[in-house]
Amino acid sequence: MYTAAVAALPVGGAGVSAMSRAAASHPLCSTDDISRQLEELQLTLGEGPCVDAFTHGSAVLAPDLRTGELQDRWPVFAGAALEAGALAAFALPLQMGAISPGVLDLYSRVPVQLDAEELADALAFADIATLVLLDTQIDETGATAVGMLLDGRFEDLRGYARAHNRRLSDLARAFIDGTEPLTGLST
After folding, report:
1. Contact 64/111 with Cβ under 8 angstroms?
2. Strand pairing partners for 107?
3. Which residues lie below 8 Å from residue 89, measured CB to CB, with a gap of 6+?
4. How far apart are CA 95 and CA 56, in angstroms?
5. What is the percentage of the chain residues whose pLDDT exceeds 70?
6. Those residues with Cβ within 8 angstroms of residue 171's Cβ, 6 or more apart along the chain or in another chain
7. pTM score
8. Contact indicator for 42, 77 with CB cutoff of 8 Å
């Protein structure tokens, strides 16, 4: 699923960290060495977009880590991220209601601003990662939707959402929880 996010968005890598206010946080997965370094850096330093997204429960978008504002906000992380090869970072909290099991982190080797559609897609990936991470009960339809994402069929789901005038994140959640059939979508 995370490689599908990298393929669908203008980013170079992705990672997920399990986070908790009561227990130690730890990286769960990364698509490459840079994202692995960024996950570990943020959790070790206690600063960075991942930590802020978890703490505040909202997306943190850092389109250019070279800016003075971000250098001041994360004095150690920003420099270390640049040294690792990341020039942009985006952190999306994984949350369902009051439950927040972690954060999906994305990075780019070049400065990049996510447009509204790309941000919506990134949030959809975060919603799906949340469901998978929480091991929500997934029926056959939901398993098919998750399988499509794991098989790189994100574009099919996005096209379906557009054709039915639905937000991708809402549709992905509906597919996974079984309240939306995959009618009209080849599986």
Report:
1. yes
2. 13, 89
3. 38, 48, 49, 60, 62, 65, 81, 105, 106, 107, 108
4. 12
5. 75
6. 124, 157, 160, 161, 164, 180
7. 0.76
8. yes
